[in-house]
Amino acid sequence: MSGANLWVRGGTLVRREGNAPGDVLIQDGKVAAAGQVAAPAGTPELDATGKLVFPGLIDPQVHFREPGLEQKEDLASGGLCCIAGGVTAFCEMPNTKPPTTNPAALEDKLRRADGRAPSDFAFFLGATAENAEQLGEWESLPGCAGIKLFMGSSTGNLLVEDDETLELVLRSGSRRVTIHSEDNPRLSQRYAALGKDVSVVQHDDVRDVECAVKATKRLLRLSEKTGRPVHLLHCSTADELDLVREADLGDLVTVEATPNHLFLRAPQCYEEHGSHAQMNPPVRGAHHQEALRRALVEGPVTCIGSDHAPHTREEKAKAYPHSPSGIPGTQTILPLLLTAVRDGWLSHQDILRLCVDGPCKVYGLEGKGVFDLGSDGDVVLVDPSVTEALPLEWLRSRAGWSPFAGRELAGWPVTTVLRGEVAYHDHELVKAPGGRPLRFRVG
Ligand code: DOR
Fold it and tell me: Which atom of ligand 1 is nearest to the CA of 95?
């Protein structure tokens, strides 16, 4: 048997066509029926009365730091943040130490996650000038989420800054390539020109809009030239959204937004949270935030990824620009999006589109879905009556801080089910970590 039986009874099912009272029947770890459904006698029950019943969310961009940077997070603690936040599948980035740039490093991460990660997992391979030609062969390895390429340098030393190598990577393989799009030559110039009294409040000017726009223009041109699908990670500017619209390349270009860019706003976030709001590309002003919010509903944003990127308090306490960039966030995706629903600019169905169907489509993920028959029995119960200020002690990241601690909640995931087994309930992991490698359609 590959999973358990469970009858999730009496909640409000959040489905693509709308919300309705109903149940989910999971048999052998897979969704066997959803709607008003009965269960065979003896099926274990989970009472969902008064709860919203979501499918497990997918977070396609996290940095869990193992191996090499475990003081910030590891696959167990990062996976715990996922399961606690209703995220039952994650795709993890390659800027670890050593970076994930070859099959042995990928294999090592898969081994480390087995038995320790409480959510399902896959890992990106990082693109470099040295491995560009082999990526086409390696991208279809089991457990590989695809290729990640940094056009601008951020945490770690993965970087492809010139068009020639970028084109080489795009011509090697066929899966969608995920891109950190900031123009490194411009970033280098801007850091070199910094004065002594620079502060984190200037972060979105240091790595300015032009850094992002310049790189994204290059990316769109090369994607069109090579015909290779690309995914613009953590889009931060209204200008790039316009560029994607104008390029009109259809499914060739997909776009991710992060909760950080959607729910934090410059300059207030830097004034209030200092380096705890510092990430790359930066959180920007109201104009960009509003454009990103609209793009969730109108396009071209295809999916939401947290870019969970923890650093320790001590590391973050360094003086800017030496404070590292990155914000933990996989556990707060769902509560933040529920706030957006309460505030009227998003619907529960948008959450399904952006956090389940979007990631499945962008990455060719198989076996996950919105209570689709035969998909994994991953279910999240949300208590819509939890409306207090988010207590820091509910958060499970090793980082121990979040710019969203203290925010008023509009609901909280109280129970997470992975393949028919209750994995997390009432702030506790209640089952041994049982995450498995994700499966993808390749080729
Ligand atoms: O702010 C960021 N932090 N952006 C990235 O792209 C990398 C990440 C990290 O790994 O810390």
Answer: 10
43 CA to centre of ligand 1 in angstroms = 44
Report, as residue numbers or ranges, the catalytic residues. 307
Distance 194 CA to ligand 1 centre (A): 21
The ligand 1 atom nearest the CA atom of 310 = 11
Q: Where is the domain boundary, 321, 341, 366?
A: 366
Mean pLDDT, the chain, integer: 97
37-62 pLDDT per residue, tens: 999 999 999 999 999 999 999 999 99
Strands (DSSP E) contained in 144-229 are 144-150, 177-180
> Same domain for 268 and 307?
yes
Ligand 1 pocket check: which of 64, 95, 123 to mutate, most ligand atoms within 8 Å of Cβ? Answer: 95
CA distance 134 to 309: 28
- Shared domain for 96 and 113, answered yes or no, is yes
- Kind of pairing, strands 52-55 and 57-62? unpaired
Q: Clarify whether residues 317 and 427 are in a common domain.
A: no
Here the CATH number for the domain that contains residue 38 is 2.30.40.10
Task: Give the total number of structural domains in the chain.
Answer: 2
State which H helix or E strand residue 101 sits in: none
Instruction: Based on the fold, state whether residues 266 and 358 are members of the same structural domain.
Output: yes
Q: Is the pTM of this model over 0.90?
A: yes
Q: How many CB atoms lie within 10 A of CB 114?
A: 16
Write the CB contacts of 208 (distance below 8 Å, at least 6 apart in sequence).
Answer: 190
* Residues 282 and 338 reside in one and the same domain: yes
Pocket test for ligand 1, best of 123, 154, 207, 323 (most atoms within 8 A of CB): 154
Q: What is the mean pLDDT of each run of 10 residues along the chain (443 residues)?
A: 86 98 98 97 98 98 98 98 98 98 98 98 97 97 98 90 96 98 97 94 98 98 98 98 98 98 98 98 98 98 98 98 98 98 97 98 98 98 95 98 96 98 98 98 83
85 and 136 fall within a common domain:
yes
Q: Among 356, 330, 439, which residue's Cα sits nearest to residue 81?
A: 330
Ligand 1 neighbours, Cβ below 6 Å, are 63, 95, 154-155, 180, 279-280, 309, 325-326
Distance 278 CA to ligand 1 centre (A): 9
- Choosing from 349, 366, 383, the residue where a domain stops is 366
Cα 49 to ligand 1 centre (Å): 40
Best CA proximity match to 63, nearest among 319, 222, 279: 279
For 334-373, the pLDDT digits (tens) are 999 999 999 999 999 999 999 999 999 999 999 999 999 9
388 found inside a domain: yes
